[in-house]
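Worked example 3. Consider a protein that binds zinc ion.
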Amino acid sequence: MRKSFMLIITGLFIFLQCAPVPVTGRKQLNLIPESQILSLSYESYDNFLDSSKVVKGTADAEMVTRVGRNIQMAVEQYFRERRNLSHLRGFQWEYNLIQDTLVNAFAMPGGKVAVFTGILPLTMNEEGLAAVMGHEIAHAVANHGNERMSQLLLMQLGGIALSEALSSQPQLTKQLALTAFGVGAQIGVLLPYSRVHEKEADQLGITFMAMAGYNPEAAIEFWQRMQKREGPEVPEFLSTHPSDQARIESLKEYLPEAMKHYKPRAE
Ligand SMILES: [Zn+2]
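Given these inputs, the predicted complex is written out as structure tokens:
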């Protein structure tokens, strides 16, 4: 009796925590209050920066900041137009270029973005970089970090609250966060984004890049380059973001929708 009562309460709790994802409207399971996810994200990002070599003042570093700001403005416009700016409450946008041969990039919850120098030969130019940053920022905007962290807490710690997990198992919980937020390469654990998350990040990402004035076709070209990339080693970025023909086909299918938002930059 008591058990079934608890199940009903848990079910109700889960129902109440299901929020729709922007654009696709899919209901997602976020068990963790957004404020807690953001403070965990900001702490993890600061630790990450402390243990990394941040590039400052170069043309590439300036390009990362410029693309980040342009996409941030597009994201803000997107939510303003939908009268839903509160979706971005608590965001503290930041973009950094990291000196590292790893082929990687990520955006943690709240808009904390890192691009590794190792991915620049594959992004090739500013539009290619906008494709990667648009995709990563879309993961952050669609709250995929919270959803992945909720799933990891359920699997690893039986679904206890984040604050409880942090006080009982701080080290493990922080590692789970890095894995959930796509930073796992640093701790040797890479958790691929699900196909559902990838599709959402692709669609939202090319919408944001188009609104920011970058031709969304560059995203298709970038993923084609990733797909063709030869060599025995799978780059970190491909471990978390598998590239296959299905992704490219689905991007092509969504392209006309994204093109409606595209106004080339004046410069
Ligand atoms: Zn992704």
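Take a moment to read the result before moving on. The two ends are 68 Å apart (CA to CA). Residues 30-259 form one domain.
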